[in-house]
Specification:
elongated, five-stranded mixed sheet, 22% strand, disordered C terminus
């Protein structure tokens, strides 16, 4: 066997195993699908063993392939470690950084920071895809994904960038016409607008000062799967919304929206934190590290969109501050334990 040529094949096979497809590995490597297939076929001939089970829908590792992948992954890690070491000696991060982010958050808080980030790292180029779906990082060749939901793929690493906080709010116009709800129970009598995939009814969850969780069943005549769309509608006086503060923080400070039920902490639809998600690697590449560190510093435990808001769970939240400070290294993002909710259904 020509060992140097096989090192290339091993690296390609490792990407195929991670992406579970030839096409996904090809996209990540920037080569053709046929080239990937040829390298894997050559390895199988040289090893006289089948490494992959091939079906019309997906690839899976054989027992031999799984063992071989462990060795290939170490080879790739060492090669990447060498590149990282040279990069650190040679200067600033460079190359193409491929990122994805949810449409609303990406537009408002990632894209707006890109000029500053690129001014700091002029040798980088960014490809950003604003999507509201869970992209497969390995299959699509993505370096970093910004995620708002708590459920993450088991083969990814997440670092917390900022907490997600929510507020129930309405326009002064709506409140003048329909009245201001003074209690959580009163919300059920109003036109409530919310983030949802299906139902025109939803349970809005709140945390009381004593830690008890309260659910209120609400309904309305508008739902959407985009927070900016909900913001536009609530600003025009259609109803009351539960929205993330990263969307409506400026509106609350400007007075174009009014916060309601502020003695309770609103618990929204997404996870508890904004996460930067990337594939596990023994040595994090300089461009990924630079991107993640930049936004950790930019947002922080009390991000700029929360500053100046007198809402339960927003100001003076030392728990979030400690949690974000402790997340300086790699970590798996997950949901915390939740108290048993007390249901409040008002017809």
């Amino acid at each position: 066997m020509e060992h140097l040529e096989n090192v290339v094949g091993m690296a390609i096979f490792a990407r195929v195993a991670e992406a579970k497809s030839f096409s996904g590995a090809a996209r990540r490597l920037g080569i053709s699908k046929s080239a990937v297939s040829k390298h894997v076929a050559r390895l199988e001939r040289e090893l006289k063993a089948r490494l992959l089970n091939r079906t019309t829908r997906r690839l899976s590792l054989t027992e031999v392939g799984a063992t071989f992948y462990q060795h290939c992954a170490r080879v790739v890690q060492e090669a990447e470690a060498a590149e990282v070491a040279v990069s650190r000696l040679g200067g600033a991060p460079s190359g193409v950084l491929k990122i994805t982010a949810p449409a609303a958050f990406g537009r408002m808080h990632i894209a707006s920071a890109v000029p500053e980030f690129l001014a700091k790292y002029p040798d980088l180029k960014i490809e950003m895809d604003l999507i509201d779906r869970m992209a497969d990082l390995a299959d699509e060749g993505i370096d970093v994904a910004i995620r708002l939901f708590g459920d993450l793929a088991p083969n990814t690493v997440a670092r917390k960038l900022a907490p997600i906080r929510w507020v129930v709010c309405a326009s002064p116009q709506y409140l003048k016409t329909h009245g201001t709800p003074k209690t959580l129970e009163a919300l059920a009598a109003h036109n409530c607008l919310f983030y949802s995939f299906r139902s025109m009814q939803s349970d809005w969850r709140f945390r009381a000062a004593d830690g008890a969780i309260v659910n209120v069943l609400v309904g309305g005549n508008f739902i959407a799967t985009n927070s900016l769309a909900i913001r536009e509608v609530v600003l025009r006086g259609l109803g009351i919304a539960m929205s993330p503060t990263f969307v409506v923080g400026d509106d609350l400070r400007a007075g174009t929206l009014k916060a309601l039920c502020t003695d309770f902490e609103a618990l929204g639809t997404f996870g508890s934190h904004i996460n930067a998600v990337y594939l596990p690697n023994r040595y994090l590449s300089p461009k990924v590290r630079a991107f993640v560190d930049f936004f950790v510093d930019r947002f922080g435990p009390v991000p700029y969109w929360d500053q100046g808001l007198a809402l339960a769970g927003v100001t003076g939240n030392d728990t979030d501050a400690r949690a974000l400070a402790a997340s300086a290294g790699k970590e798996k993002a997950g949901e915390g334990n939740r108290a048993t909710p007390k249901r409040m259904r008002v017809s």
